[in-house]
Amino acid sequence: MSKEKGDIVKSILRFIRDEIESSKLDMDQKESLEVAKQCLESTYEMDSADTAVYTEATNLFSLFNVNTEVNEEAARIAEELKVRGNNYMKMGQYSEALDIYTEAINLNPKNHVFYCNRAAAYSRLEKHWNAISDCKESIKLQPTAKAYGRLGVAYSNMNMYQEARDAYLKAHELDSSNATYEQNLKLADELLASQPSSGSQAAASALPNPNAINFNNFLNNPALISTASQMLSDPAFVNMVSGLMSTGPNGDPNIDGFLSVTQQLAQQIQAANSNLIESLRQSMTGPNSGSSGDNPQQDPGPQNNQ
């Protein structure tokens, strides 16, 4: 199959996918389109799981409007739709915004802003491959810092940090005054530097660090001391613990009894002080050092002047 024919098929598949994800079709219509999509994929030996099918596909309407101008009325209506889509984004109605941006694109597939704004809607809906596809389409029409910035966010959300870094770097080059691009670029560099070079390193990093455990805080935890004192003064608890010393019929350790006692012990600790377990964890390892800064900063979303 020639490259030209392959590009057309990819564009058709992308169009069908967008229609299936649209909220304007009922389930029967979507099922019919799904069958058509599967037939095309089978006939032309394309796999929709291959991200290139969609991320490299040109918008279908663009193929039929390469040498034609968008009439003024269509462009005007498309701009009005864009404003409506932006308002939906501000209200957090991302699916509605997505549909409106798609209408605008259908009327004027040459406006890079529409793809960039729809990419923002896709990102909010966690459809990151779709966002990547729209960002690339926007960049193809007109490279902008905003499109590269949103491309970086989409790649980051897919844990593709090298691609994200490249996009943030380009965004920063186009708009060096934007602090968000600079911060996201720095974050991508940090995430790349922190990635383990082997599976064994990744497994080792998941294990607790003994040097990080503060045993002094653990043993002197007031909640632990108080709960232990209460339990040791309870005759029923003392009798329960004595069961640990018993053996099975053949003189073997009473494993079942041990597990039962352990379970009951945990239940009693939880009942005596529901916050003790978390308190012990904090006293041993300290507060959670994880940072929400591991996620890239999203831009505030499309505004009515864009």
Automatic annotation (TrEMBL):
Pfam families listed in its UniProt record: SGTA_dimer, TPR_1, TPR_11
SMART domains: TPR
Any Gene Ontology CC annotation: membrane
Lineage per the UniProt record: Eukaryota, Metazoa, Ecdysozoa, Arthropoda, Hexapoda
Stretches for region Disordered: 280-306
Polar residues bias (residue ranges): 280-292
Bias (Low complexity) ranges: 293-306
Protein name per UniProt: Tetratricopeptide repeat-containing protein
Highest taxon in the source lineage: Eukaryota
